[in-house]
Amino acid sequence: MRRHPQGCEVCHSTLKPHPVPAGAAVSPSLLGSDLPKKCTFRMLNVRPHHKTMRNAADPPPGFPLLEELCIATASHSYMTDRDLMDILHGSRRLRVLDVRGCARITPSGLAALPCPELECLFWGQYFSSHSSSLPKRGFNLVTEKWCQTLRELDIANQMFTEDDLEVAMSFLAQAPDVETLRSLNLSGTKITPSALRSVVGQLTALQYLNLSSCRYLPRGVKRLYRGQGDIRQLLDKLD
C-alpha cells in the first residue's frame, strides 16, 4: 500500500494488508467498511461473493475518496450491476473505471453510478469464449451521462446493435466540448460508417481510434488509427 499525496491510499490486489488473490471470492458489501480511504483500488480476476450480514446496522460508507477502480478479469466474470453499485455507491469522485471482461455489467448499471465526471471507461470484452454474442442495447445511457467528461472509451467486442451505437455515438459527437475525447476503441463492434462519420468529423482531439475487426465497415478502414492526420483521412473513405 502507498499513500496518495492528498492523504488517501492506493491499494493493489497483490499488496498487504488487503491482498485479493487472483480468482478469490470477495464480498463487495464489505469492501467499503475495510477500505474507506482508497483513491485507487485494483483487484484482478476476482469473484464476488455475497455474504449474509447479521445484525447489520447502517450500510458501509463505500469509497468516498475513490478515483480509480479496476476489476478487470481474464476469465468468466460473475460481477453484476449490484456488485458494482455495492462498491461504488459512495464514489462521486471516480474518474477511471476498468471493467474489462465483466460481461454481466449493463449500460443501465453503469449509468446508475453516482460519479458525474468519469473520464476513462474501459469496458472491452477481450475474451470471446466467455462473452455473449446476443445483441445488446442501451449504450446511449452511458454516452449521454458522460459525453462531456470522457477522455478514453473502450467498448471492444461489445455486441451493441448498429442502431444503438449510432445513437450512442451521436451523444459523443454533440458534446459541448469536442476536444475532450482522445481515445476510442470500437474494435470488434457493429459500428457503421454513418455512426462513425459523426464522431470522426466532430471530435477534433481524438488521437487513438481502433476500428480493427469491425465487420460493418468497408475494406481498408478496419484498422488502428493514430493521430488526427491519420484519423481525418478516414472521412474520405466513409463517404
From TrEMBL:
InterPro entries per UniProt: Leu-rich_rpt, LRR_dom_sf
GO cellular component terms listed in the entry, alphabetical order: SCF ubiquitin ligase complex
Pfam families according to UniProt: LRR_6
Record's signal peptide: none
The protein's name: F-box/LRR-repeat protein 6
GO biological process: SCF-dependent proteasomal ubiquitin-dependent protein catabolic process
